[in-house]
Amino acid sequence: MDYTARLRGIIRDFALTKGGTFVVLSEDTIFVKMLQSALIKQLAIPQFHVNFVKGIEALMGQLPICDVKGATPFVIIEQILHGRRHDQYVKKIKEQAPNCKIIVLANEITRDSLALLYELGADNTIVKPLSINTLVEKIANAIEPPARLGKLMDQARQLLTDGNAHAALSVTDSILAIKPDSATGLMLRGDALRDLGQHNEAILQYQQAMDTAQLFVAPVQRLAEHYATLGDTKRELHYLQKLDALSPLNYERKIDLGKASLVMGLQDSAHKYLDDAVRIAGQGDSRLLSDAASKLARACMEQYPEACERHLRTIVDMGGNAPVAAIADIWNRLGISLRRQGRWADAVAEYGKAIQRVPNDENLHFNKALAEADGQQYIAAADSLVNAIRINPAFGKQDAAVAARIGRIFQLAGDKDKAKEYTALSHELDIQRIQGPK
After folding, report:
1. Which domains are present in the chain?
2. How far is CA 377 from CA 104, 327, 369, in A?
3. Residues facing 125 on adjacent strands
4. Does the pTM of the predicted model rise above 0.90?
5. Model confidence over 16-28: pLDDT tens digits?
6. Residues 305-321: pLDDT tens digits?
7. Is the distance from CB of 427 to CB of 408 less than 8 angstroms?
8. Which segments of 79-167 are extended strands (E)?
9. Are strands 101-106 and 20-25 parallel, antiparallel or unpaired?
């Protein structure tokens, strides 16, 4: 079998035997026609195996459909669409569909962009324009990486995923016998040793992998994660900075750098990293901004509410025409950061602005009630609760803690009937939780 026939066989086998489904997000008509010609006309892959979607929400929505059907998705996505970056979605796609293959399309690609894409999990990249033969080769190599070494690496990864570290360690012996300086092989060996509890030996493998391949981020990532787990923030920050030098467009890492810098008392550096995180996330869409707000809140809200507030305000300002759900979520986090600082009146004011923008979000009304209760404004807090319950009559009726807080606010506001209702509901939910499912 010649090389071209082998490549085409790989793609046909993926679609027709292994249930592969192509999900494509691109508005480049020349590329779309070339892809249709390659897959549907030349390879005779049925149309229902090739889905063209109009936006990222539609793309993400296809992943659970593939899962239900038992199909393996192959995503082809533009790096930039309508002026917004979509490369950060590579990681989110892989998290939702770990077996998914991903190719990212670009008109040009920089070293920093390439580093980010492979760090996030892209299987291949395509720089347009290209020939139909190159397109087929790129797709086939993403499905089945060439050479025995790649297969051994896939085998080791699968064994680690299955929790079989001993067998994975044995496979890494074979990888390193073929290529002793394989950075990926050394990293996988480190992962196996880590899973076996041999942490010092794992660190040595990661460091060797890092030294072997200066642009390979995975072993440096492992070292940063290891020292974060140990609570050694100084070393964690050191390796996070190394990662940032290798791949500087990862907004999630910028937040990690900001948090580590805050822990080390490096306020100016922390705010620069967090500013960069918000700026990079802002180059994407509202979903990425909301994601950045969520990660920022998780990282900094508890210990550094002032820093969290500062950068959440920037995200709110950047939200623009974001969907209401995203805006409500970001604004909720801003209000919570203000309450953590004891600034209940400021929190009430922010929730008021948010409710003007998103009037039918019960969580905004509930959190406004909590802020008003912080300031002993119990009548106003009860009114806010009434608004939340009007929007969603089931609100607070599935969570004992929420029901208890609602009951307490109604009690302090002098509404004895509602206080009695929600307090009794809270006790009932608590009993159900203790007894467990019947």
Report:
1. 3-144 (3.40.50.2300), 345-351+359-438 (1.25.40.10)
2. 53, 26, 9
3. 104
4. no
5. 999 899 999 999 9
6. 888 888 888 887 776 55
7. no
8. 80-81, 84-85, 101-106, 124-127
9. unpaired
